[in-house]
Target: AB hydrolase-1 domain-containing protein
Amino acid sequence: MSTQSTTKTQQLSILHRDEEVTLTYDHTLPTSSPRDRERPRLLFLHGILGDRRTWQDYPQYFPEHEIIALTQWGFGKGGERDQPLDTQESAETLCAFCRALNEQENTPHRPFIIVAWSYACHVALLAALEAPTLFQQLILYELIIPSYGMDQAIHTEFTQDLTKMMSPIIRATRRKKSALAIDYFIAACKNLPETDTKEPSYGLMNQSEALQIIKQENDYTLAKLLNQNEPPEISAESLKTLHQQVPITILWGENSRTIFQLSSKTAAKAIEQIGGEIPNVDHLLPEEDVVRFSEIVKHSLLE
Model:
């Protein structure tokens, strides 16, 4: 690493379905080399309970890259007004954001490399299907949608694990116990053995103070996830065709729960990817081990 990177929080207005939408993002210029206005930007996309700050420790590990960390549509301050979550709308606003940023920077053909996690993986795929020339590569950590050509037997296994994961979260949400619902969600993502008391085995207080602040401010996104619009299907054939236009790398953790592994492995199979499993990690890798995930991303870059 070289000179400490300087990140600026900025806003950009886009037109989305005939309405003006303002998106917030963190922008970090490269520090180890002169800015190359043609080189693809790295664009980081967070998951549920997150926003642009999920990636605030990452720019220092990519000193040669221009970094964008975007708060997606429906998240962050004011996002609670946008009900419910919708991966298609998130994808549309992502494409509009990329175009608007390129226009603002007077680099109309500059592509983006997407690094997406969890909920954002399907968003990134939908965006690339809509506008493949905007993106040079997709690096996806743990998809969560039962799509991509998933067969019935695997879909049944997925549904069983999803029900097991979400049932206590739904109960806590219905009882208006938001903090408990968040703890159940975090515990489910951590995938530790259940306790005898059935209480969450891992929760917000086990995470860093910075993550606690981010997740408390985005707590409403968990309820929005429960009520989200049905994500559009992406067939195995469509994914394979997209991969030929925009190279896709799919990754998942060895210790991650069933739903994350099944979705990711199904998508990896569709694009005929060999490997992708990361040893001794779980779904929370990007926010709990920045150094390791940064190294994995750098190793995955094709440029």
Notes: The chain has a mean pLDDT of 94.
